[in-house]
Amino acid sequence: MSENQESTANLKPLYAARLAEDLERNTQEQEHLANEVIALNRKIEALRQNQILLLNMQRALTGTHTADDGTSSPAPPAAVPQQADDAPTGHGATPTLRHLVVSYLSEEGAPRSALEVTAALAEAHKNRPVKITVVRSTLEAMVAKGHVRRTRQGRSVYYTTTAAAAASTGSEPATA
Questions:
Q1: Mean pLDDT for the stretch of residues 23-52
Q2: Contact 86, 168 (CB under 8 A)
Q3: CA 164 to each of CA 132, 136, 167: distance values in angstroms, whole numbers, following the listed order
Q4: Cα separations (Å) of 52 from 49, 59, 78?
Q5: What digits encode the pLDDT tens for the residues 137-176?
Q6: Largest Cα–Cα distance of the chain, in whole Å?
Q7: CA angle, 14 as apex, 9 and 18 as ends, to 5°?
Q8: For the segment 64-102, what is each residue's pLDDT rounded down to a tens digit?
Q9: Which of 47, 51, 88, 114 could covalently link to 93 via disulfide, CB atoms 3.0 to 4.6 Å apart?
Q10: Closest CA to 157 of 114, 96, 106
Q11: Are 140 and 117 in contact (CB under 8 A)?
């Protein structure tokens, strides 16, 4: 019997060490998962903000309002911009992003990427938030309407104005 007690006494430190290791791994895994949850929550919040932006853009383009459940209904008349394609009228009016983009591309004359357009507009209009996703969406909407041309060079996409778009802003496109 004493041999049995001796064997048990030798096992206790081994079990204690194993339990300590298991507890440490458990704690590390909890911390790791907590960090992943925080990162995922940030991603979810960013996606929600993007969803709001996209819904507002959809509403502006189509004149409809998409509810949270995915159903569409006509937007109230005040929610649809009256002159989204035109330059602002009146003194002190804030120019539309579309107007700023066309003006910049017209002045540059050479093809520019969405990132270059965003950086230039952010620098020129520091009091106005300019996000690349919004600039890219604006550029693509203008491509669809024929106001801007899209060209690819390798994996990069570049944009230039058309003569009609430059004329509507009052600036002539530079020739490259």
A1: 87
A2: yes
A3: 24, 20, 5
A4: 5, 10, 18
A5: 999 999 999 989 999 999 989 999 887 555 655 554 444 3
A6: 103
A7: 145
A8: 655 555 555 554 444 333 334 444 545 567 888 999 999
A9: 88
A10: 114
A11: no
Residue 97 near residue 57 (C-beta atoms within 8 A): no
Q: Among 150, 149, 148, which Cα is nearest to 169's?
A: 148
Give the C-alpha separation, 26 to 12, whole Å: 21
Token pair belonging to 95? 């120019």
Q: At what angle do helices 132-144 and 114-124 cross, to 10 degrees?
A: 120
For residue 164, the model assigns a pLDDT of: 56
Global model pTM greater than 0.85: no
- Tokens 């300590």 -> residue: 20
How far is Cα 18 from Cα 11, in angstroms, rounded to an integer? 11
Element housing 145 (H / E): none
DSSP state of 63: S
Q: What is the pLDDT of residue 176?
A: 39
Three-state SS for 150? strand
- Return the CA Rg of the chain: 29
Q: Characterize the bridge pairing of strands 64-66 and 72-74.
A: antiparallel
The pLDDT score that the predictor gives to residue 70 is 54
